[in-house]
Design brief:
single chain; eight-stranded parallel beta barrel; five-stranded antiparallel sheet
Length: 494
């Protein structure tokens, strides 16, 4: 979905990059600080149900003539744009919350609504599609931040059809920091694929949120002890994706150097309790079999050194393009056994065709993967999107695919497909709401100070070795994504 990356000339020169690589390989980065002891009794709070018929209703009515509701009834919206239901929700502390609306829509028309929290948009034009009958109830979820104390959550119709019949709003918050263990890996342990979800050591579905590096041949200077401390502690990220480009001045030019750099970054992420995705960043040429021999060598080295770690994912082909799904599948079925013969436990992430768009960018969709999946277990399929360019067709494809396939969004941006230009935060939030509701893990592109708008740090931050924490050194996309990473999943342990 993206053109080739800039040459090292455009990012401050090869000397600075070489020095940064040398520092990482020699272990000269700042040593990580041991995580603080977690708060006792940490656990997500049970969802609190707020019945619609007891909320503030504008241009609608409380009714009870369709069976299956909870409480004493539901709200039937008037067929008017702007008809709404507003709940008052108390939160013990500020933080992220999962908002789940239970509704029925006996028509075939989407009765979209805007969801606001304290007047600010939480989801714009959120879909409430037909459920088959007015007695057929279903739920849809989104994530939002609540302030400590009283909050107003409003669901307002955006079309002349009004909203669906709304039964209730369920609000789930966290009463304390994450459960005992502190870091994401300490809490969740080794992850594995269960059905269409990624599950922790307790068999509970989880969602990881984090960042992808830029190409390590260009931006190793952005990956210091200080910057990784900030990602783990200030951003509260769960996962780091380490992008080892194959071409474009990467692995193919010096396999030993870039393998050792990947080793060093895996160890750095591990020391900070984060999960790490080892990304074989093949981009051009788009046929993954072009680098089949190199991939065998690289993943043999990576798996041999890190096979006993609990936090590893192997992403075996970043963005295949210009080839049929059967070609990508054949490649996967040759590389996965190389890894499995050494590391039989870690999840493997399989790129999908057309720049990991499940084929959409080349006129296909998820059906080719659903109908002809890779012959391997404990795998997930990757999806990439750039919200300004990739609209509802891509969003809907991801939604459908996630109901049938284990999906992991290993790369996305709030800009256009090149990771540059203006930010579309509204469309990006639609994707994030979907991924939260379906427990689809994600990493954002990218943790560098590249001149493009998709790089989170302002230009010059890495050359100056920070500052790394807070919002001061961040571009608008960095401020936005940091806030959403900090609103972490409530990892279930019971």
């Amino acid at each position: 979905m993206r053109p080739a990356r800039p040459s090292s000339r455009a990012i401050g020169g090869a000397a600075a990059t070489a020095a940064a690589v040398a520092a990482l390989l020699l272990g000269l980065t700042t040593a990580p600080v041991a995580p603080a002891a977690p708060a006792a009794g940490a656990a997500p709070a049970a969802a609190v149900v707020h019945e619609a018929e007891n909320a503030v209703i504008s241009q609608g009515a409380a009714e009870s003539n369709h069976a299956g509701f909870t409480g004493t009834g539901f709200v039937n919206y008037d067929n008017l744009t702007g008809s709404s239901v507003a709940w008052t929700v108390d939160a013990a502390q500020a933080g992220s919350a999962t908002l789940t609306l239970r509704y029925a829509n006996g028509t075939t028309a989407n009765r979209a609504m805007d969801i606001t929290v304290n007047g600010a948009p939480a989801a714009t034009g959120k879909a409430f599609g037909g459920t088959g009958a007015w007695t057929s109830w279903t739920t849809t979820s989104l994530t939002a931040r609540l302030k400590a104390g009283s909050n107003t959550i409003r669901a307002a119709a955006t079309t002349a059809n009004g909203g669906p019949n709304v039964d209730h709003l369920a609000v789930e918050t966290s009463t304390t920091p994450p459960p005992t263990g502190g870091t994401p890996v300490a809490v969740n342990g080794r992850l594995s694929v269960c059905g269409t979800k990624l599950c922790n050591q307790y068999g509970k579905p989880v969602q990881l949120r984090g960042m992808s590096t830029h190409g390590t041949q260009w931006y190793a200077q952005c990956l210091t002890g200080g910057s990784l401390d900030a990602l783990a502690k200030d951003w509260k990220a769960d996962v780091l994706r380490v992008s080892t480009y194959v071409q474009e001045g990467g692995y193919a030019t010096d396999p030993a150097k870039f393998t050792n750099l990947a080793h060093a970054l895996i160890d750095q992420a591990t020391a900070r309790g984060m999960y790490v995705i080892v990304d074989w960043h093949m981009l051009d040429p788009g046929d993954p079999t072009y680098n089949l021999s190199r991939a065998r060598t690289f993943f043999t080295a990576i798996a041999s050194r890190h096979k006993d770690k609990k936090n590893i994912f192997y992403e075996i082909a970043n963005e295949p393009s210009g080839v049929a799904w059967s070609r990508v599948k054949s490649y996967a079925e040759q590389i996965i056994p190389v890894i499995r013969n050494i590391d039989g436990n870690a999840p493997v992430l399989v790129g999908t065709r057309a720049w990991s768009s499940l084929g959409v960018s080349e006129g296909a969709n998820e059906s080719e993967v659903v109908g002809n999946p890779v012959n391997a277990s404990n795998i997930m399929y990757t999806f990439h999107f750039y919200a300004y360019s990739h609209r509802e067709e891509y969003l809907n494809t991801l939604s459908r695919a996630a109901d049938k396939l284990p999906m992991f969004v290993t790369e996305f941006g709030t800009q256009n497909y090149a990771g540059e230009g203006g930010n579309d935060f509204t469309m990006s939030q639609k994707y994030l709401d979907l991924m939260a509701s379906k427990k689809i893990s994600w990493t954002n592109w990218n943790y560098s100070d590249d001149h493009r708008s998709g790089a989170v740090f302002k230009s010059g931050t890495c050359a100056g070795d920070g500052p790394w924490t807070g919002t001061g050194p961040l571009k608008p996309a960095g401020v936005w994504i940091r806030d959403r990473i900090r609103s972490a999943d409530n990892f279930p342990t019971g």
